[in-house]
Specification:
The protein is an alpha+beta fold. About 30% of the residues lie in helices and about 25% in strands. The protein has three helices and eight strands. The chain has helices at about 15-20, 40-60, 120-125, and strands at about 5, 25-30, 30-35, 65-70, 75, 80, 85-90, 110. The chain has a three-stranded antiparallel beta sheet, with no helix packed on it. Strands 4-7-8 form a three-stranded antiparallel beta sheet, covered by helices on one side. Strands 5-6 form a two-stranded antiparallel sheet. Strand 5 (about 75) and strand 6 (about 80) form a beta hairpin. It is globular, with a radius of gyration of 15 Å.
Length: about 130
């Protein structure tokens, strides 16, 4: 999943929301707009397997919810990411409106590190 960054300005979440839907996935880390190409088949296969395993397990036991990308996780005005999977505990679900982005820290975040985004995933996103 190749990624490119726009560092010509400091991007905000509103700037991200104002972008036209061009089919690309974008994140903002430290005010830099980052674009990622669509995930490769291996990445999608792993993401799908994780969701198919975790989703029913969590739902059937009333543990909470598992959501998957693309879904914005708003960390701050200059930090908005789209983890591959995230988990929210049942007792915290009332804090997460279903018609909005995730604005509080999830209980668990899963990021599938791809070769082209590995550094970003393991350093910048892990820091957030």
């Amino acid at each position: 999943m190749a990624a490119t960054a726009s560092v010509d300005r400091v991007w905000t979440y509103q700037d991200l929301r104002d972008l036209p839907d061009d089919g690309h996935r974008y994140e903002i880390i430290d005010g830099a707009l980052l674009m990622a190409a669509s995930p490769v088949i291996k990445h999608q296969e792993l993401s799908n397997r994780l969701h198919l395993l975790a989703g029913p397990h969590v739902r059937d036991r009333g543990l909470g919810v598992v959501w998957y990308a693309p879904l914005d996780v708003y960390i701050g005005q200059h930090d908005v990411v789209q983890p591959d999977l995230l988990f929210i505990r049942q007792d915290r679900l009332h804090l997460f409106p279903t018609n909005d982005v995730v604005r509080l820290p999830p209980d668990l975040v899963v990021e599938i590190a791809s070769p082209s985004t590995r550094r970003r995933d393991l350093i910048a996103k892990a820091r957030l």
